[in-house]
Design a protein that fits this description.
alpha/beta, cytoplasm, Rna Polymerase Sigma Factor, Chain: A, single chain, Rossmann fold, 12 helices, binds L-homoserine, acyltransferase, nine-stranded mixed β-sheet, two-stranded parallel ribbon, binds acetyl coenzyme *A
Length: 391
């Protein structure tokens, strides 16, 4: 295993906060029995690992998130591209940074792009190694099915490379919460505290059902071509439709009603003269925007891969009941639900709490937004992190 750009452990390694770095973690045996060769994981870090490596915090991103949690700083003569990246705002600014709850002056904060993703880690858009494809074309349709557990096992190799034996905290929301929980169960000795936000112990039938609808919407775009589209048009229509389906589940009915009601999009009329000729409702325009925004920044195969991984989430697979699986954990807990979440219901967080080996209260983020409330209400989440697992 090598750190790309150096072979030293993180504390000896000259890094730049908020700039993408990589670890080659070699061949990964997957739960399916497949061996995935030449895996590279991308990560970003902030702060310094202390002498006994006891201050490391892992923040796990959600389905379409990336590694850029917060702004960073780069050395004076860093290349322009690194500087621009480091200076760009991240998706977790409210929680991570100097003086914030996850204080980068105190903690060494790491965020790893999930295996199978498209923000730097090996995924379907990565050139396949010569052992798979002599022409090194992207993996495309050949990229194997990976699970949340596969991803977490690969992330453990990143922790090894960085010299982190145990995390002070592993925390994430949604798919990030699934990975945080899987870390606590797979590597109990490596997780001192675990934050599971807007997530659950195992994907429910309904979550799997939503996932299937998204995946089929994407696959049915003719441009998808079974997953081999990299030298042609990208399946943006299919990915956009998948995002629309997903995004409705990420927001609450009440929020959509309050924000958009039955209003037409300004400048458009909802009374068309013939079927299919009317203008859009505001909410339709909003979903169109969410769809094109994701299609512009995400790879369709990676979306399928990560969605399938999330559908596979079950910390109890092969480990008995949820209670039996969770009995092996030894960490402190923060379990949080968003009160208006209609994708990961608060009752699923309650069920997780009930299955833990120690009494743990379920905490609540109050938000009208629905599932995305865990990203939007970062101040509330920060207070919960501060009061529980980082007190
Ligand atoms: C570039 C990257 O790499 S991003 C990677 C990181 N991303 C992630 O981690 C994913 C997680 N983040 C998210 O899912 C989202 O950013 C969230 C949930 C945090 C955003 O939540 P909110 O702030 O509530 O955004 P909201 O749902 O209001 O959407 C706002 C957008 O809708 C647009 N919009 C609102 N109403 C309409 C309308 N009627 N018609 C068209 N567009 C509309 C706004 O202009 C805004 O556009 P912008 O995002 O391009 O600025
Ligand atoms: N909006 C989030 C929700 C998934 O939990 C994302 O796109 O990752």
């Amino acid at each position: 295993m090598t750190l790309v750009g150096g072979t030293e452990r993180a504390r000896d390694f000259v890094r730049e906060d908020g700039v993408l770095a990589f670890v080659d973690v070699g061949e990964r045996p997957l739960e399916s029995g497949v061996l995935l060769p030449r895996v590279r994981l991308a990560y970003e870090t902030w702060g310094e690992l202390n002498a006994d490596a006891s201050n490391a915090v892992l923040v796990e991103h959600a389905l379409t998130g990336d590694t850029h949690l917060t702004r960073g700083r780069v050395r004076e003569h860093a290349p322009e591209i690194e500087r621009a990246r480091a200076e760009a705002p991240g998706w977790c600014e409210g929680l991570v940074g100097p003086g914030r709850v996850i204080d980068t002056n105190k903690y060494f904060v790491v965020c790893i792009n999930m295996l199978g993703g498209c923000y730097g880690s090996t995924g379907p858009a990565t050139p396949a190694p010569s052992s798979v494809d002599p022409e090194n074309k992207p993996w495309g349709s050949r990229f194997p099915f990976v699970t949340i557990r596969d991803a977490v096992r690969a992330e453990a190799a990143v922790a090894d490379a960085l010299g982190i034996q145990a995390w002070r905290l592993v925390v994430g929301g949604s798919m990030g919460g699934a990975r945080a929980l899987e870390w606590a169960v797979t590597f109990p000795e490596r997780v001192q505290a675990c934050g599971v936000v807007a997530s659950c112990a195992a994907s429910s039938a309904e979550q799997i059902a939503w996932g299937q609808a998204q995946n089929l919407a994407l696959r049915q775009d003719p441009a998808f071509n079974g997953g081999d589209y990299y030298d042609s048009d990208f399946p943006t229509a299919g990915l956009g439709l998948a995002r629309r389906i997903a995004h409705i589940t990420y927001r609450s009915a009440a929020e959509l009603q309050t924000r958009f009601s039955r209003d037409p999009q300004p400048g458009e009329s909802i009374l068309g003269v013939a079927a299919g000729t009317r203008g859009r409702y505001k909410v339709e325009s909003y979903l169109d925007h969410q769809a094109s925004k994701l299609a512009d920044r995400f790879d369709a195969n990676a979306y399928l891969t990560l969605n399938e991984a999330l559908m596979s989430h079950d910390v109890a697979r092969g480990r008995g009941s949820p209670e039996e699986a969770l009995a092996r954990t030894t960490c402190d807990w923060l379990v949080v639900a968003v009160d208006s979440d209609r994708l990961y219901f608060p009752s699923e967080s309650d069920a997780l709490c009930a299955a833990l080996p120690v009494p743990v209260p379920r905490h609540t983020i109050h938000s009208d937004a629905g599932h995305d409330g865990f990203l939007i209400e970062d101040a509330q989440l920060g207070e919960l992190v501060r009061a529980t697992v980082l007190s």
